């Protein structure tokens, strides 16, 4: 592994940081989250059109930039530093790779250029609160998490030569504003039980979307209700399904797991960026705040706590960078590197949670007020662990996938 960044990667980091410093102050972030979209649409347009951020993970043949996971992780690290509310994670990290992997050529040609230009946002909708399971981060995604033939979840059925969905999905990232939903649904009953992915477009009859009150306002979530919604099977070309049947189910599960490994590395980098920024702000504060006639940061106990925070952040950064490199190296295939993303994500989420908690305490009385900016980072840490963790399950599933328990005879 070559840990040295190229000049192009350094330029991506520098340019994005400069733009976000100008456009994403804490007050601007709070204002953007309270808009109808949940993010600054003008900033998203600038990120898409000027920097091509929305098309980072999309091949050049479809109007994208064709970058690797490493570049996407660097971009999200800078986004995490500013806690910039945007549909980047849902669109570029979750939805676009699934369209690339499973979509028919007709679907890719129609949708990917619009996503790459920033004109279309997309997201992945899974039943209940099963996003981490669907992505293979905390459990096997070949089970019945999409419904399993029972009441609940999202059910798909054939009707009039097409497909229709019925059910509900909770905690859908940017689900209230995305123009395209990739919905995971169960079909086939008990005899041919399988999970498939479907395309639900904005404005379709029977599609209801409600923005939910979430712990982290910078990570908008929605409840998506599907009441006999007409949809299109992802991978279907000319009426013939390329993803139906037992083989199709394996393809969907494998694609979701591959996207989950990439997403884990990217979210880990994003968490590292947030942890690094909150550490910087805490160091700045303790240098200025005085107690007993001297800066708070001059006390040995405070220095020790800051040193521990620094070590955690740097260790998490190393793990996140390695996970991004590993995800790019395996190219979505199986192998020994497949559990790296989950472990890096666990370390990064733990570092962010610990750093944000320490920041609240080291800021003293002002840090405990909800209005203080330190709570934006604390909420991001807690929300991400609820969405993609918890940490102990990430580590346990990674150990299971790598065969660690079998080797130890457990």
UniProtKB/TrEMBL annotation:
Q: Which InterPro entries match?
A: Acyl-CoA_Oxase/DH_mid-dom_sf, AcylCo_DH-like_C, AcylCo_DH/oxidase_C, AcylCoA_DH/ox_N, AcylCoA_DH/ox_N_sf, AcylCoA_DH/oxidase_NM_dom_sf
Print the keywords alphabetically.
FAD, Flavoprotein, Oxidoreductase
Pfam annotation, one family? Acyl-CoA_dh_N
Which is one GO molecular function term here? acyl-CoA dehydrogenase activity
Pinpoint the Acyl-CoA dehydrogenase/oxidase N-terminal domain residues.
6-118
User: What superkingdom heads the lineage?
Assistant: Bacteria
**Cofactor(s) listed:** FAD
Q: Where is the Acyl-CoA dehydrogenase/oxidase C-terminal domain?
A: 265-401
What family does the Swiss-Prot or TrEMBL record give for this protein? Answer: Belongs to the acyl-CoA dehydrogenase family.
In terms of PANTHER family, this protein maps to: ACYL-COA DEHYDROGENASE (PTHR43884), ACYL-COA DEHYDROGENASE FADE28 (PTHR43884:SF20)
Can you say what this protein is called?
Answer: Acyl-CoA/acyl-ACP dehydrogenase
Identify the taxonomic lineage of the organism of origin. Bacteria, Bacillati, Actinomycetota, Actinomycetes, Kitasatosporales
